[in-house]
Amino acid sequence: MTFMRLHPKIIYAFLLLLLLVGVFADLAFGSANISLGEFFNALWGKGGNPTTDFIIFHVRMPRVVTALITGASLSVAGLLLQTLFHNPLAGPYVLGISSGAGLGVAIYIMASVAFIGISPAFIVGGQVMAALTGSVLVFFLILSFSWRLGDSVSLLLIGMMVGSLASAIVGILEFFASAEYVHKYVVWSLGSLAATNWLQLSFLAPLFVFATGLSLFLLKPMDALLMGEMHARVSGINVKKVRIAMIVISSLLAGTITAFTGPIAFVGMTVPHIVRLISGKVLHRVVLPGSILVGALLMVLCDIISQLPGKAVTLPINAVTALFGAPVVVVLILRNRKMKVTF
Amino acid sequence: MQTYSDKNILLSTSNLSVGYRTRKKGTNVLLSGLNLEIKQGELITLIGPNGCGKSTLIRSLCGVLPLLKGTVTIGGLDAASLTVSQKSDILGVVLTDPVYEKNMTIFDLVAMGRYHFTNWIGNITSADMEIIGDVLKKTGLAKKAANRLSEVSDGERQRAMIAKVLAQDVDLIILDEPTAHLDLSNRMELLLLLKKLSRKMGKGILLSTHELGLGMQVSDKVWLIDHNGNMEQSIPEELILNNSLNHIFGNNHISFHPFSASFELNPDKGLWVNIIGDGIITACVIRLIKRLGINIARQPQDGAILIEVDELRKEIIVNSENPNTFLRLIDLQNYFVSIINHQKYNN
């Protein structure tokens, strides 16, 4: 594969170009029929058609920005967790954070009917708050375990147990709730990039920049962790501190994103692998920027694909990421046998 | 090379106790009262039975495990007062634990030795590059730099770990069982590399190993730990002479023989032989007889079977009730095996 021998910087420059094209394409095409001429006019402020302006600036643009942030955040979280757990299958799901968010939303939508008679599911932002509360609670639970547990494997198992527990409770809630609310929950659980507005993004974007910025300070110790915990310790790295920092950052990213978009599977686990395969490197100073780039690109592409049916129908983003992404990873692995995904 | 006060002592301990503190069982002291010293240019092997505290001692010296008592002094300063990067200027550690990320290249791994010298992102400067290139050459890995760890042999991987610690540019190297998982030639090569580092570059080296024979051939000093947590610090030949190895590793089945400087099976058959001869065939006959568990008498004695070896005619003559002449060692073995079996079934 000839492009494997290219320097990562050249590959990344190409991907960045692709990302720009993707962003424009995602803005230009959608369920509303806007011609390319109208689109560019509106973009340069010469549109004059308030409906078109509104669709582009207040419907499509927040969605595209959400896609960018979501893809990048989940990928960074996935990378951190894979390094933390020394497990190539790790992703934002393994700590149970996403399940916590799901539980929060489930209780909010379905259980509150049983207790207070009405569902508050129509309060603006209530769902987001419920998801945030759920993921924050799970996060503190996991964090308190991580102080006590010496090794990452136990933490991984506990994270998965917390996840199963949350899913079980959600299952019981679904069993007893009425069809209307179950449907509402299922729609949330399929994920959506369209539910965020500029106000929410003004919270989400700085948080992404902050958390990702923090992760840059972990680039070196995370590289050392690639050797293994003991190797890192004798190299003079405070593994415990680094591990806590990694948990905080990845939970922050995965928890908030899940709160706003619903659970989006697949991206966080696979994007770091895609980056390792196309760059041929495993060091974080290469893979982390690459994951931001590829994660954002993948998410924007998935968003475009989800709108391909045209008109009123938009495919659930959670299904598209897996439908589109899984074959890509399989092809990459098959074409590059030298770089093995270590299972 | 830096110079230190106190006759170039790189590391010393004073009244050191090592072990574990557990919440339930309290303190478990494995070794105590240790006064150790590693000087520049010294190669020291740490030997002892499984579970005696070798790894615990090494981890305590490296500062990964808390000390139970006493102090460790590195480069003339109390190790507890040193910062991580001060310590990394003097001490480098090599562990045998497998490296998790198998897609890492040899270069990446060796570059990790520059950890405390690179900037916050870990960028490799041209000066770092030069050092890494140099240590790759010294460890014979120059051609393998771009290979992933999954593509190289165990021996090469272990050499890469040593290259990494050389890239760290330290005077003191501590290795925990570097010979584990390696075949004989790789073990020898590794130990010779360490010897070269101590001789030519003046590094102080401490390694733990189960390789008694090879370890004693290359090391200047041996720290020998017994089952009760007592440590004997000596030179290899002294340990052979005072029979220490036998006390620790010997048992009903094997014992240490000073002449071969190795462990041999104890004879367990009621047979005695007396061997006359001098040369390579005789040596092989002696080995064969020992291997079968038969006693060898120094002097001709009653009831001992006499074996005469004619090195020139390549004949082995066994003088028993009915004398036999053997041309091949396998026939000699078959002969004695039949005697042993005969005895066994008649008793």
Structure characterization notes:
- The complex is a heterodimer of chains A (343) and B (347).
- Chain A has 343 residues and is mainly alpha-helical.
- Chain A has helices at 8-28, 36-43, 50-85, 97-116, 126-148, 152-176, 179-189, 198-216, 219-225, 229-234, 239-261, 267-279, 284-306, 317-335.
- Chain A is globular and about 65 Å long.
- In chain B, strands 7-8-9-4-10-11 form a 6-stranded mixed beta sheet, sandwiched between helices. In chain B, strands 1, 2, 3, 5 and 6 form a 5-stranded antiparallel beta sheet that branches.
- In chain B, helix 5 packs across helix 6 (154-167).
- In chain B, 36% of the residues are buried.
- The interface between A and B is medium-sized, with 24 and 29 residues.
Which key features would you list for this structure?
heterodimer; A: 343 residues; mainly alpha; ABC transporter involved in vitamin B12 uptake, BtuC; 0% strand; B: 347 residues; alpha/beta; Rossmann fold; 2 domains; 5-stranded antiparallel sheet; 18 strands
SSE blueprint and pairings:
The complex is a heterodimer of chains A (343) and B (347).
Chain A: H1 8-28, H2 36-43, H3 50-85, H4 97-116, H5 126-148, H6 152-176, H7 179-189, H8 198-216, H9 219-225, H10 229-234, H11 239-261, H12 267-279, H13 284-306, H14 317-335
Chain B: H1 5-8, E1 9-22, E2 26-34, E3 37-39, E4 43-47, H2 54-62, E5 69-74, E6 77-78, H3 84-90, E7 91-94, H4 106-111, H5 126-138, H6 154-167, E8 172-176, H7 184-201, E9 204-208, H8 212-218, E10 221-225, E11 231-234, H9 236-241, H10 244-249, E12 254-257, E13 262-265, E14 272-276, H11 280-291, E15 295-297, E16 305-310, E17 315-319, E18 324-326, H12 329-346
Parallel strand pairs in B: 4-9, 4-10, 7-8, 8-9, 14-15, 14-16
Antiparallel strand pairs in B: 1-2, 1-3, 1-5, 5-6, 10-11, 12-13, 16-17, 17-18
Helix pairs in contact in B: 5-6
